[in-house]
Amino acid sequence: MGAHLHDIRYVRIGSDDLDESVRFATDILGLEVVHRDAGAAYLRGDDRDHNICYTKGRSTGQVLGFEMPDMASLDAAAAMFEKAGVAVRHGTSDEREQRRVRGLITLRDPTGNVIDLVARPDHSGKRYFGTRDAGITSFSHVGLRTSNASADELFWTSMLGAKVSDWIGDAPLLRIDEVHHKIALFPSAFPGVQHVNFQVESIDDIMRSYYHLKKHNVRIVFGPGRHPTSGARFLYFQGPDEIIYEYSSGVRMITAEDEKTYIPRQFPMAESSFCMWGSVPDIPEFRTPPSGAPIRRAA
Ligand SMILES: [Fe+2]
Predict the structure, then answer these.
(1) What is the number of alpha carbons within 13 Å of residue 172 lying toward its C-beta?
(2) 3-class secondary structure, 263
(3) Which fold does the domain 136-284 belong to in CATH?
(4) Confidence of residue 204 (pLDDT cuts 50, 70, 90)
C-alpha cells in the first residue's frame, strides 16, 4: 500500500547564475517572479505559491516536490518509508519556510533523485500574471533521469502510488491523477531533472512561443510536435543550467471511467514514439541508441 500523491508541487533547481535564470524564466518562459532574495528566486505560472525555486549555485542540487493530501498522510508515508528501509529526513523549520509548506519530508528514489513530500503548501490568492503572454495554465510535469528504470518505476508505483500510463522503451510515463503523466523517468547516465513542463492553453500558444523563442535565439531542441502517447502538442527548448523546458497543450486525461479498462501501451524507443508529426528530438534521452547498442528492457 503506497502513499497517495495529490499533485506535483514544485521543482528546485540549483543555478550558476540566479540573474540569468530569472531573466530566462520571465522574458522567455513567461513566469512571474514571486520572491527574490540573495540565495533564491521563486517563480510561478499558476495559483500555487511557486512552481520553480532557483537556488544559488548549481551545487545546491535539484529537488522535486509533491503534495500529499494532508498531514496525516505525510506522517503515514514517513512511517511507511522508514519501515521499508528508505531513509527519510524530516524537514527543519527553515526548510519548511523556504518551501512555503507546513509539512515536509525528504527522501531519494533508487537513482538518487531528491524527492520532497509536502503537506499544506501555500497557495496564492493573487492570479498568476506572467511577464509575457505565453498562455501558461499550469505547472504540470517533470521528466526525471533514471539510472535504473525498472527499480525507479517500482519505487514510484509501489511506494508513491503512481500508475504507468505508457512506456517508451524502458521509460515509464507515470500518472498520479487523471493527467496522462505528472512524472516520466528517462534512462540517463546521471540523476537529476531532465525536463520541466508547463501546460499552455492551446496550440496557438505553442506556435506563438515558437516564433518568440526563435526571435530571441533560444535553442529549440524538439518540436513543434505531437506526442503519440499523451496526445499533447509540444515544444521543448533549452534554458540555463542545462535544463530543458517544455510547453504542451491538450494532454490526454485518463478518467475514473477509463481506469476500468485502461492498460499501459508499450511504444518502442524510436523518434516516432515521441512525435507523430515527424519532428526529430535533439535531446539525448529521447533518441534511439546508436545501432548495435542494446536497448535495455524493464525487468
Ligand atoms: Fe514532457
Answers:
(1) 23
(2) coil
(3) 2,3-Dihydroxybiphenyl 1,2-Dioxygenase; domain 1 (3.10.180)
(4) very high
Domain boundaries, the chain: 7-119, 136-284
Mean pLDDT of 261-267: 97
E strand or H helix at 98, and its extent? helix 93-99
The helix/strand/coil state of 212 is helix
Residue-level pLDDT at 293: 52
Backbone angles phi, psi at 280, to 5 degrees: -105, 125
Residues within 5 Å of ion ligand 1, judged at the Cβ atom:
197, 246
What is the predicted pLDDT for the residue at 291?
A: 52
**223: DSSP letter:** E
| Residues contacting 29, CB < 8 A, separation 6+ | 45, 134, 198, 239, 245
Q: How far is the CA of 133 from the centre of ligand 1 (A)?
A: 21
Interval between CA 226 and ligand 1 midpoint (Å): 11
**pLDDT of amino acid 33:** 98
Domain 7-119 carries which CATH code?
3.10.180.10
Query: For residue 80, what are the CA distances in angstroms to 3, 42, 105, 136, 182?
Result: 8, 31, 12, 36, 22
Q: Answer yes or no: is pLDDT of 289 > 70.
A: no
This prediction's pTM = 0.95
Distance from the alpha carbon of residue 195 to the mean position of ligand 1, in angstroms = 7
pLDDT per position as a tens digit, 101-115: 999 999 999 999 999
Q: How far is the CA of 93 from the centre of ligand 1 (A)?
A: 33
Torsion of CA 275, 249, 114, 77, to 10 degrees: -120
